Amino acid sequence: MKIRLFAALVVAVLGSQTLSAQRQVVSLDEDWQFRFSHSVEKGVYDRVDLPHTWNAGDALSGKPDYKRGIGNYRKTITVPDDWKGKRVFIRFEGVNNVADMFVNGCHAGRHKGGYGAFTFDLTDGLRYGAENTFLVRVSNAENLEIMPLVGDFNFYGGIYRNVSLIVAEPVHISMRDYGSSGVRLVQKSVSRESAQVDAVVQLSNDSGSGAEAELRVRLLDGEKEVLASSSAVSLPAGESSHSIGFSLENPHLWNGTEDPFLYTAEVSLWQDGRMIDRVEQPLGLRYYSIDPEKGFFLNGRHLQLRGVCRHQDRAEVGNALRPWHHDEDAAIMAEMGVNAVRLAHYPQSSYFYDLMDRYGFIVWAEIPFIGPGGYSDEGFVDIEAFRENGKEQLREMIRQHYNHPSICLWGIFNELSMRGDSPVPYIEELDAIAHEEDPTRPTTSASNIDGELNFVTDAIAWNRYDGWYGGTPADLGKWLDRTHEEHPELCIAISEYGAGASIYHQQDTVVKSVPVSWWHPENWQTQYHIENWRELSSRPFVWGSFVWNMFDFGAAHRHEGDRPGINDKGLVTFDRKVRKDAFYFYQANWRDDIPVLYLADRRCTERVRKVQTFRAFTNFPEAELFVNGRSCGKAGADSLRVVTWENVELSPGRNEIKVVAGGRKNTVEDSYECYLQTAM
Fold first, then answer.
1. In this structure, what is the dihedral angle of CA atoms 379, 383, 386, 388, given to the nearest 10 degrees?
2. Which of 29, 113, 413, 488 gives a 20 to 30 Å CA spacing to 92?
3. What one-character-per-residue DSSP string does 387-426 give?
4. Helix, strand or coil for residue 522?
5. Does pLDDT of 420 surpass 90?
6. Residue 43 in this model has a pLDDT that exceeds 90
7. What tens digit of pLDDT does each residue of 249-308 get?
8. Reading across the β-sheet that carries 288-291, which strands appear in turn?
């Protein structure tokens, strides 16, 4: 296989000629040769495009020993001769979880960690005007030196995000800053009256001697220039950091879902009157705080964080997601009325963070420091290599995603165990690094135990499943009140709560399900969320709550629900085709900008009880139920926007159930059919 880059370069460079010698970006996503390392026969390769994972089949079929080994990706390209004298980098957005790259048979770099971007400088190893062979050996094998160690999700192997070549001048905005853009927009102070920002720029000078340049920053509102600033910079050979500060009066604030306004910051580097490099980054100006008594505040106003968690996989493709997959996920969240997202349990695609910015969601981003989660393996191994890898992944996450205004919290750990080696000293190290890298954002963590590990980060959250794995939803409220009373200084949130549900499992009475069984009736999930939201919504000191999970996701070790290999706690099915009833419960509670009226239990089409209870979720004050055209009366919505009709009799055979709400000008209705079985 041979790929010639000349045609691609024409496309990449056209439109930038007027800006002179800017960096060139060339996609390398198409046409790779793939084989497993154990396939040693000559010429045994499959053609694949990126993103790609080799576990889309076995892991998602519920095979707990899915392939965790080494896969080889090979590609031959012709490098243009006129790239001589420039710097050539390859940038991977995500490879799970160890990548070793070889150029023309020589080792060019290694990266450890499956969820961050990284670059290798290929300049000295390329043959210009000739063919070059790239080989990337990828391993997703278990490794005690790399986060994560164990988790309730699949560790898909492969180059599962995009790859590109970046060609830059010897003097350029750095490509060596932990895989980041090289630009950090530090919001030193922001208010409704003014904003002060420092553009901190990492610059590389690979010319071999000192150089002079000009660094410019432009702030844009669409195509309109809001301000411009510049500074002469002296660049020693190697890497250096430079800063340009600017201020803005009466800034247009990024205000969450209400007004997710974004400026664009254009940072450019000039020599001898010509632009030699340019990077654009989003700038959403906002200020926020968390109060242990009153919760989360954005731009001085209280904001109840109504959140969900999200894993980065879906049916058929595993974690090798395309842009339209991310688009659909974000749109479904907005449809439900979400305003906060916990991106668990690792950094996710930069494209998805872009979407979070544009939708105005408050985001919790975290590293994959994951504990046993109910499993026998330990969550922390106190060895130097593991500790260093975690620090590296934390720095990567913060540097790469620093400029996203949606990110308001850096997550340090999830469900660690206190068995064996204590993780507390290491948590303290990570927390200090997070604040050193970014003094502007608070840290948080997700815990499921008591202990001193809960008192390290600025805020703390707990994973609670009251009413699913044990107890009742009322226990959640009691636990929250007790914890808040005992530790009034803590900023408390609920980082996970949820229950499994299959759309194929229906029952016409609400009976609690057994989590580890093959029977996960949908209506118990619905009841679980109604009762849990009752406890959460009435406690303003809870700074945020995050449903586990927005979507069903792959977990090969699970054997429960309607099929193996799936964690079915999602409010939406794994293929994104069906919104479960609990989805509409939250939509009725979280959205006032659209009319919501939804009849629950619509998939329970076969019923055995003649006398039934019906309920609807609505943001109207009342609704009227009709059964076979006969009114069962109007009923008012309760404080959770649930309307209930009890003791409703069905007729044998087919029954039409309809609910109507609104007035003459805004009438809405919803309906379905069900069948009452008759005795034989």
1. 140
2. 413
3. HHHHHHHHHHHHHHHTT-TTEEEEEEEES---SSS--HHH
4. helix
5. no
6. no
7. 999 999 999 999 999 999 999 999 999 999 999 999 999 999 999 999 999 999 999 999
8. 288-291, 295-298, 301-302
Residue type, 502: S
Where would I find the H helices in 251-349?
Answer: 323-336
Alpha carbon separation from 373 to 42, 44, 116, 421, 459 (Å, rounded): 43, 39, 23, 16, 21
Task: List the structure tokens of 428.
Answer: 């303290």
Q: Give catalytic status of residue 335 as yes or no.
A: no
| Amino acid making up residue 348 | Q
Could you give the maximum distance between any two Cα atoms of the chain, in Å?
Answer: 93
Q: How far apart are CA 257 and CA 40, in angstroms?
A: 53
Instruction: Write out the two tokens for 231.
Output: 């500074």
DSSP of 432-478, one letter per residue?
A: HHHHHH-TTS-EEEEESS-SGGGGSSSSEEEE--BTTTBS-HHHHHH
Contacts of 210 (CB under 8 A, 6+ apart): 234, 235, 236, 237
Asked if 94 contacts 160 with a C-beta cutoff of 8 angstroms, the reply is yes
Residue with tokens 């880059």: 5
Closest to 168 measured CA to CA, from 29, 26, 11, 7: 26
On whether the pTM is more than 0.90, the answer is: yes
Residue pair 190/176 in contact (Cβ under 8 Å)? The answer is no
Q: Where are the beta strands (DSSP E) in 250-322?
A: 254-255, 259-260, 263-271, 274-283, 288-291, 295-298, 301-302, 305-310
Distance CA 516, CA 248 (A): 56
| Phi, psi of 386, rounded to the nearest 5 degrees | -65, -45
| CA distance to 374, 537, 602, 626, per residue, from 667 (Å) | 48, 29, 20, 15
Is the N-terminal amide bond of 51 cis, ω within 30° of 0?
yes
Identify each DSSP E strand in 501-593 by its residue range.
542-547, 553-560, 563-567
Nearest CA to 109 out of 119, 94, 124 is that of 119
The rounded distance, in Å, linking the Cα atoms of 570 and 567 is: 8
Are 266 and 173 in contact by the 8 Å Cβ rule? The answer is no
As a whole number of angstroms, the distance between CA 291 and CA 195 comes to 23
**496 token code pair:** 């996970």
Q: Nearest-CA neighbor of 588 among 538, 639, 547?
A: 639
Select from 280, 392, 396 the least CA-distant residue to 348.
396
Distances (CA, A) of 160 to 117, 119, 135, 155, 268: 11, 15, 16, 11, 31
Q: Which two tokens stand for residue 132?
A: 């070059």
User: What is the mean predicted confidence (pLDDT) over 43-69?
Assistant: 93
Res 14: pLDDT = 30
The average pLDDT across 632-653 equals: 97
CA distance linking residue 55 with residue 64, whole number of Å: 11
CB atoms within 10 A of CB 671: 12
In percent, the amount of the chain with pLDDT more than 70 equals 96
* CA nearest neighbour of 190 among 259, 267, 289: 289
Three-state SS for 149? coil
Q: Is the pLDDT of residue 7 over 50?
A: no
Tell me how far apart the alpha carbons of residues 377 and 385 are, in angstroms, rounded to a whole number: 18
CA dist 390 and 384 (Å) reads 10
DSSP letter, residue 486: H
The three-class DSSP label of residue 601 is coil
- Cis-peptide into 549, omega within 30 deg: yes
Query: Of the residues 415, 496, 522, 535, which is catalytic?
Result: 415
